[in-house]
Design brief:
Order of helices and strands: EEHEEHEHEHEHEHEEEEEHEEEEEH
Largest sheet: 5 strands, parallel
Helix content: 25-40%
Number of helices: 8
Distance between the termini: 18 Å
């Protein structure tokens, strides 16, 4: 495949300088798994939306409810990442339901679905914190667009979290949401790649740092932990991950178990 691997150290030959054009053709975009709730009192609309979401997110966990009270019960049992809700439904409206869900402390990505261009409802939705609006008829592209916005919002609005790292005699904080990858250089030092650059000669072990990281940070080989939110492409043929970096783009070769771990965390693949 024309791979040229640049060993950053004898124990860490995992950063690649170049990939052939064929590999780029095979690379597949990925994103994190999501829990989706669909609320619509019309059976056909509910089933169609579920089918479209499933096509975009093949491994998504999709729950369907035909009324707001049933949806509220579902939210009481588990948290959802995305809620698609019709507006006009019996008993209470979708907006009233969303007010209750917000009042429970849940903050899902909310998409309103309606057969009417209802400006007043849209204005009320803005007040509640609705994130998107789909006007029927439903299409794959409309749903894909909203799911894409969800992933972009997820990437840009991660909760602030820091970890303490030590380099020499200095100890300082690193924002977790800025970390793209962490690579073990040798048995004494690691390098932390962030959105703005990198921090080398950090005195720590990967296992120590992983204990302080959210679950979307995963091992892809024995020397490397990556942040799933920053993976741009995955080449299934060569098991290579690509992460854009301002100083040195990262091409990371995964182990077999690392590739399986990565794909288990992925929600959808787009060729």
């Amino acid at each position: 495949m024309g791979l040229e691997w640049e060993a950053k150290s004898k124990n860490s030959p995992y950063i690649c300088r170049d990939l052939s054009a064929n590999c780029y053709k095979n690379m597949e975009k990925t994103s994190i798994s999501t829990h989706v709730l669909i609320v619509d009192d019309e059976f056909n609309g509910r089933e169609l939306l579920a089918e479209l979401v499933q096509r975009i997110l093949p491994k998504a966990r999709i729950i369907k409810r035909e009324s707001p009270p049933e949806a509220i019960e579902a939210v009481m049992e588990q948290a959802f990442d995305i809620i698609f809700s019709d507006i006009r439904m019996p008993q209470i409206t979708g907006l009233e339901m969303l007010r209750v869900i917000k009042g429970m402390g849940h903050k899902p990505y909310i998409v309103l679905v309606s057969a009417y261009n209802e400006f007043d409802y849209a204005q009320e939705g803005i007040e509640i914190g609705v994130n998107g609006y789909i006007l029927k008829p439903l299409t794959l592209e409309k749903v894909r667009k909203e799911i894409g916005r969800y992933h972009e919002a997820l990437k840009n609005s991660l909760p602030l979290q820091t970890i303490m790292v030590k380099r020499g005699t200095d100890t300082f904080q690193v924002n977790v949401q800025d970390i793209k990858a962490i690579v073990r250089e040798n048995k004494h030092f690691i390098t932390i790649y962030t959105r703005h650059g990198f921090i080398n000669y950090v005195s720590s072990y990967l296992k120590e740092i992983q204990g302080s990281l959210p679950e979307h940070f995963i091992y892809v080989n024995r020397q490397t932990i990556i942040n799933m939110h920053y993976v741009n492409h995955f080449c299934n043929t060569t098991r290579t991950l690509f992460i854009e970096h301002p100083v040195n783009n990262l091409y990371i070769e995964t182990s077999r178990n690392g590739a399986r771990n990565f794909l288990d965390h992925c929600q959808f693949l787009i060729g």
